[in-house]
């Protein structure tokens, strides 16, 4: 697969991970957006989840 294809898959995983995090924590989109600005740990957790999703898809 090309690098661009991998980047597109990773971007999709990031969107999916954000939505999964938002729903599981009962947050509105606005609340999640505010949390992402205020808390680097939240962004790190979502990026970690996205990376795991990506790796699972690539196997």
In helices, the fraction of residues equals over 70%
Strand content: under 5%
The number of distinct structural domains comes to 1
Overall mean pLDDT stands at: 94
Largest sheet geometry: none
Structural class: mainly alpha
Q: How many runs of DSSP E, i.e. beta strands?
A: 0
Q: What is the radius of gyration?
A: 12 Å
Through-space gap between termini: 13 Å
- Poorly predicted runs are none
Which descriptor suits the 3D outline? Answer: elongated
Distinct helical segment count: 3
**SSE succession:** HHH
Short description:
The protein has 59 residues and is mainly alpha-helical. The chain has one domain (3-58). It is built from 3 helices and no strands.
Structure characterization notes:
This protein is mainly α. It has one domain (3-58). Helix content is 86%, strand content 0%. It has 3 helices and no strands. Helix 1 (3-24) crosses helix 3. The protein is elongated, with a radius of gyration of 12 Å. The two termini are 13 Å apart. 8% of the residues are buried. The mean pLDDT is 94.
Q: Secondary-structure blueprint of this entry?
A:
Layout lengths: L2 H22 L4 H10 L1 H19 L1
Helix pairs in contact: 1-3, 2-3
Descriptive terms for the model:
single chain; mainly alpha; 86% helix
């Amino acid at each position: 697969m090309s690098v661009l294809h991998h980047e597109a898959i990773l971007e999709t995983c990031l969107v999916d991970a954000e939505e999964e995090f938002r729903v599981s924590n009962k947050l509105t989109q606005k609340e999640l957006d505010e949390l992402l600005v205020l808390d680097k740990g939240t962004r790190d957790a979502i990026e970690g989840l996205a990376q795991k999703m990506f790796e699972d898809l690539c196997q």
